[in-house]
Amino acid sequence: MERTVAYFETLSPDNTDITFRLARERANELGIRKIVIASTTGATAKKAMEYFKNDGIQLVVIPHQWDFHREVNLFPEDLATTLRDTGHVVHFGTMLFHTSDLYESKTPLVMANLLRCFCQGFKVCFEIVLMATDAGHVKSSEKIIAIAGTGRGSDTAMVMEAASSQHLKKLRVNEILCKPLNPLNIEEVHAKMNLELSR
Question: How many Cβ atoms are within 10 Å of 145's Cβ, its own excluded?
């Protein structure tokens, strides 16, 4: 069996359209009807809602948890309502790889940094699929597509078999659809985002 992986040579929100196209094509080929997708400000979720509206796909949108680096969550409440009203899911759950020093354990940070060696989106895909399964929005062993990105937009998509954080060993990456060619470490991601905000 041979499959093609798309590699993004530059980090850009423009990668989102390609990521969505690849996800749609593979979802249709495999009969997958659920996409777990990360969205911090709601822009990616809104775009995905429009992009996949005629595909019979349910989105499971995972924004940042409440009280994460800021008092007000960046994901708009009215968008969450719209998504839910149109049959999608929005889940504000505990971000499993951002709980360093919980019970004096560094394990979440180690896992996050290891997955970031592949790219930031890899780390987020693992995290959001575990979160979605923990919340019952995805069934254990259900085949889904996970979508995440670096900074803004989406640049990483994978076909995965879901698992909960209680059964981490059952989580599977079946296929990598796309990812950045040259992934950044978390400090480089933050520096890039701060540079864009200052422009």
Answer: 26
3-state secondary structure of 199: coil
Instruction: Report yes or no: 111 and 150 within 8 Å, Cβ to Cβ.
Output: no
The pLDDT value recorded for residue 197 is 41
Q: Are strands 143-148 and 156-161 parallel, antiparallel or unpaired?
A: antiparallel
1 within some domain: no
User: Is residue 165 situated within a structural domain?
Assistant: yes
Query: From CA 18, how far away is CA 8, in angstroms rounded?
Result: 10
3-state SS, one letter per residue, for 102-113: HHHCCHHHHHHH
Residue 47 has pLDDT above 90, yes or no: yes
Quick one: CA dihedral 36, 80, 186, 13, positive or negative?
A: positive
Confirm if 148 and 116 have CB atoms less than 8 A apart: no
Range of the domain at 120: 6-198
Q: Give me the chain's average pLDDT, please.
A: 89
